[in-house]
């Protein structure tokens, strides 16, 4: 880690740079959305890794849907926090801005953030499990709770699946391509992600190799802490509020 300071960051942000922000579950922690690895991350004693996979769904679609139905109801009751607000403001203020989010909760979208690249899809989207010809690839459905589980495809009567990227599945190539392009920026923030899930972590490397000023905001050290120019240890909602106040 170099000796860059908050003042260095503020100086760069004052020069209307191309800013890209990568967010993870920590950004939504203050809103009450459980992270995958923190307290409250277990559901009925299952770990996310046991449920968020195509094979878990193939084995027991009802069980996996019960988990998503519960998560959708939790998120529906949560409110975006100050971190979501500040990022949304930046998305409108900086002409060249991208947000790459690993979050599937839709809270960035709820505060009208511009230019959101959803790395892992959204719990508010669904698709036909067998991919019938009449159905779109994916569509929005905010029914919560569903009257019966698993919900059925309105096109073929088969079962629906959540519109998220599961462990072992690949990220939409277009989203990946746009995210890699966005990482080639002037100031790159990585906020509230444990950064263990690739290729999200590699975006930090792409940004650094491009010469971006890289900043991590997290309550804990992570594998990328040693790689970035500036570590701002603290809660995203507090640190982003401080940056926004200092930017005036
Ligand atoms: P993670 O649970 O692995 O890590 C969360 C990180 O946030 C940790 O490093 C933790 O130290 C940090 N953190 C906790 N509270 C914070 C705060 N207030 N401010 C700043 N940092 C804070 O989450 P991840 O890295 O995003 O990876 C998990 C995967 O699970 C993601 O790819 C995502 O698709 C999915 N997920 C999404 C949500 C969501 O949409 N909100 C929630 C859980 C998991
Ligand atoms: Zn169908």
Task: Give your account of this protein's structure.
By secondary structure, the protein is of the alpha/beta class. It folds into 2 domains: 1-32 and 80-120 and 171-248, TPP-binding domain (Rossmann fold, 3-Layer(aba) Sandwich); 34-77 and 122-164, SIR2/SIRT2 'Small Domain', CATH 3.30.1600. It contains 10 helices and 9 strands. It has helices spanning 6-14, 26-29, 48-51, 54-59, 61-77, 82-93, 107-110, 173-183, 200-210, 236-247; strands at 19-23, 97-101, 116-118, 121-128, 139-140, 160-164, 187-191, 213-218, 230-233. β7, α9 (200-210) and β8 (213-218) form a beta-alpha-beta unit. α6 packs across α10 (236-247). The chain binds nicotinamide-adenine-dinucleotide and zinc ion (ZN). The site of nicotinamide-adenine-dinucleotide (NAD) has 27 residues, from α2 and β8.
């Amino acid at each position: 880690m170099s000796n860059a300071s908050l003042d260095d960051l503020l100086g760069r942000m004052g020069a209307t740079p191309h800013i890209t922000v990568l967010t993870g579950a920590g950004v939504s922690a203050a809103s009450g959305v459980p992270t995958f690895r923190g307290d409250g991350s277990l559901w009925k004693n299952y770990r996310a890794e046991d449920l968020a996979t195509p094979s878990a769904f193939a084995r027991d679609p009802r069980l996996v849907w019960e988990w998503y139905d519960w998560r959708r109801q939790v998120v529906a009751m949560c409110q975006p926090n100050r971190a979501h607000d500040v990022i949304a403001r930046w998305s409108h203020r900086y002409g060249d801005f991208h947000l790459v989010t690993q979050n599937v909760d839709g809270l960035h979208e709820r505060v009208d953030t511009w230019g959101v690249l959803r790395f892992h899809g959204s719990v508010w989207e669904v698709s036909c499990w067998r991919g019938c010809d009449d159905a779109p690839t994916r569509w929005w459905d905010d029914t919560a709770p569903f009257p019966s589980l698993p919900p059925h495809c309105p096109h073929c009567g088969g079962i629906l699946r959540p519109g998220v990227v599961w462990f072992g599945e690949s990220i939409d190539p277009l989203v990946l391509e746009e995210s890699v392009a966005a990482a080639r920026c002037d100031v790159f923030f990585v906020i509230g992600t444990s950064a263990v899930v690739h290729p999200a972590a590699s975006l930090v490397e792409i940004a650094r190799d491009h010469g971006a000023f890289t900043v991590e905001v997290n309550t804990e050290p992570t594998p990328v802490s040693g790689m970035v120019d500036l570590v701002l240890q603290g809660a995203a909602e507090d640190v982003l509020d401080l940056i926004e106040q200092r930017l005036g």
